[in-house]
Amino acid sequence: MGGTSSIQRLYELIRNKTIIKNANLIICESSVNDIVASAISEKESLPLNVLYRNVQWLYKELYVLNKKVLIIIFPTFNNRINNLHRLLCQKYNFNVIDMANYYEINNLKDFEPDHLHPLSSYMKKLGESIIENISSFKLGKTNTFVNDNPTFEIITPNQMQIILSKNITKKTFENSLFKEETFILKKHGTMLKFKDYFDFKIIAIHFWNNDISGKDWYECFFRTSGIMIDNGIEHIIKDCGCLNSVQEIQNVNFKITKNTCVRYCDKNIPRKEFHHTAAVWDNRNNIIDEIGIIAFFLASPKGNYHTETIDFQALGNENIIISKDYDFSYLIPPIKFYKEIVDEYCCLMDNKKLTPFLKQITNLNHNLAKIKIHNHLSYKLGYIMIKNSKSLLGYIKMPFILMIVVLMHKEQNKINHFLKELKNDLNNEIILKEKECFTYKLGAAFIKASKTWYKGGYIRFLFMDLSRLKKEFKNKNKY
User: Fold this and answer.
1) Please, are residues 207 and 193 in contact by the beta-carbon 8 Å criterion?
2) Planar angle of CA 58, 60, 64, nearest 5 degrees
3) How many CB atoms lie within 10 A of CB 200?
4) Alpha carbon of residue 118 to chain centroid
5) What is the pLDDT of residues 239-252, one digit of tens each?
6) Which residues contact 184 (CB under 8 A, 6 or more apart)?
7) In the chain, count of helices (H) and strands (E)?
8) Residues 177, 199: contact at Cβ < 8 Å?
9) Are 6 and 36 in contact (CB under 8 A)?
């Protein structure tokens, strides 16, 4: 089940034990969501001691089935958690396909676009290889370890006492894999009370909210509802998005008492436990006025709760080697080779795909360079003089037009400043080339003459600079 950690695998193993006992091979993967719950989701932050306990319980239950077990470690990278799974695989001699280790050895971390969901193309190939080699997998150790797990019980609302029995609703929800009878607790409606199992601990709850407004996986995270479990001493609040979800209880000390009741929980009551698939902390979240409960997952007070102190940092640094007899990582498709093919293809095709865009960028730079030069006062004045020098009327209008252009140019200082900021992004060669054209130099000479008009600047411009510039550009087509 997506978005759920090891506790969901344990829960399904207990409630489907009869079916699983008849399997030829049990395939299990939970490291991905264990990493999400404890290391990636900041809000959820599943305590490592709770995760450690749940994984220990899961592997012990798998062991006592005395069946072939295959553990797949996906390419999600957290050595503390991945090593916990490797350590238990080593302990029980479970078969292993270690994709995380394969990716690290072959430097493929950056190749996978989504480490939580490897590409279906080669996962399909991996599945086919597992089926083809099903007879090659081996039984783990037998009669070596005693099952010291607690006794696990799954209690549905049908087995509980109903208090304030108004708005009782039962619905059957189903998808491609699951079909569940779901008990709907409504706001200001029914309360549930445990009839027995006193001193048992609630270790998880199976929810299913099937609100039709949830259109896709992530949108379901933002439509939530919650329940409060109160034993008269303390309470727990758990929230669920619009998903089929099994969520662990992080409070390891919470026990069922004679006074323990379950009811819908209002959004205004502060939460202590969170789940990454129920974003109650987010402003985008919308509250639903009902919540679907399938079952409560309980553990007896007697049993090994794995309260030993673990140095998870040291565990993460260990180099755990799986025996060659149980390491089936060679069934992983040649993803390294696939990457080489993809890289070679991209190297060849990228240039072909980029060439038209590079040409467009070059043309854009060329045009931007011209635009910048054409906005200089020198070019503007030169252009006006050239345009108006072709008729007597043009000569008469020229001084007035030049004065207007100068005044307008001063008003465009902000635009000029912006263009100057683009200087580093333009092609300097084009700029220099444009500055050498007759139009630009004519305008520049006129500006220089204007600054020394009282020394005969305009006379020098008309009888010396103008003829000099015409002579220089006589053989150049720059008009």
Assistant:
1) no
2) 120
3) 21
4) 13
5) 999 889 999 999 99
6) 168, 169, 170, 171, 290, 291, 292, 293
7) 16, 15
8) no
9) no
Do residues 476 and 441 lie in contact, with contact meaning Cβ atoms separated by under 8 Å? no
What pLDDT was estimated at residue 478? 45
Using a 10 angstrom Cβ sphere, with 0-12 exposed, 13-18 middle and 19 or more buried, the burial of residue 84 is buried
Task: Answer yes or no: is pLDDT of 268 > 90.
Answer: no
The pTM for the full model equals: 0.73
Tell me: pLDDT of 154 over 70. yes
Secondary structure (DSSP) of 303-352: S--------HHHHHH--PPPPTTTB-GGGS--HHHHHHHHHHHHHHHHHH
Q: Please report the pLDDT score of residue 118 as a whole number.
A: 86
H-run or E-run covering 88: helix 79-92
Residues 74, 2: contact at Cβ < 8 Å?
Answer: no
Q: How far is CA 405 from the centre of its chain?
A: 56
- DSSP lists the bridge partners of residue 27 as 70
What contacts 390, CB < 8 A, 6 or more positions away?
none
Angstrom distances, CA of residue 127 to CA of 27, 101, 112, 123, 466: 11, 18, 18, 6, 84
pLDDT 10s digits, 382-425: 877 888 788 878 777 777 777 777 777 776 766 656 666 655 55
